[in-house]
UniProtKB/TrEMBL annotation:
Organism: Streptomyces bluensis
Region described as Disordered: spans on this chain: 167-187
PANTHER family for the chain: THIOREDOXIN, MITOCHONDRIAL
Thioredoxin domain segment(s): 21-155
Domain of life: Bacteria
InterPro entries per record: Thioredoxin-like_sf, Thioredoxin_domain, TPR-like_helical_dom_sf
Name this protein carries in UniProt: Tetratricopeptide repeat protein
Amino acid sequence: MQPRNMSMSGVVDLAAVKAAQEAKSKAEQARAEAARQGGGGAVSPADLVIDVDEAGFERDVLQRSTEVPVVIDFWAEWCQPCKQLSPVLERLAVEYDGRFVLAKIDVDANQMLMQQFGVQGIPAVFAVVAGQALPLFQGAAPEAQIRGTLDQLVEVAEQRFGLTGLTVDPDAQPGSAEPAPQAPAGPYDHLLEAAVQALDAGDLGGAVQAYKNVLSDDPGNTEAKLGLAQAELLKRVQDADPQQVRKAAAENPRDVTAQIAAADLDLVGGHVEDAFGRLIDTVRRTAGEDRDAARLRLLELFEVVGAEDPRVTAARRALARALF
């Protein structure tokens, strides 16, 4: 994982989509557990900028990231650009009023964290959202660019991960609010973990079966439904010849099978709007069983991306217009 300038819109990473849905569910459970225990209170503005070391990283960054995006500023005392960037980030952390927390990591004192994030030059800025690391930018960027990146981060955290940030109270005592407690393990966590391990090993058939095993007992399990949709998509495209699939789709615009196959490749390649648009056009051009086939595949792809993604919302409206 190398630091780089990054836009978090327009591309769908299937592993990240799955992680987002898992994290969103776990964040909701953690918030419910915090409410049950009487926790999750307001934080002081001073708690929005924290110094983090290796010993406290899991608590202060990973655990905290289930409540709020954590922006990490890798810096060092001898680094002159760091002295330009750090005060800007600290000021913006307070200005954004709990929509993110700034964690400052001194690379000289925390070499292991620097290596784990693949930091090769400082200042380097990352974010951790629901346990997922995102490289943001490197160097002392202009404030307008930093604000744009933070705005994207906050939007993605809320829309895809369900993280709405912390409540800030100027009268709260610094350090009075602890990260929300971890949600207790669910009854199907071991089965879901087996499915993830199968995915990581490339055993798509095994992953599909593992998710179906969960759904046979718990048909409403959101994590299993998303995982099954992803695993089935990857299984459909694993032996496809992309060049032949796209050639067939271009030469036969009314061939529903060809368009469906191309839409699968579009989505796996991160071309979300193209995949949705292709199938909506196919629905518009066809009737009967062909139309139903295109519509049902489109609904399956909606499951992969996630119901709350704005691209899914827009495509649902377009589908309704195509159908009626």
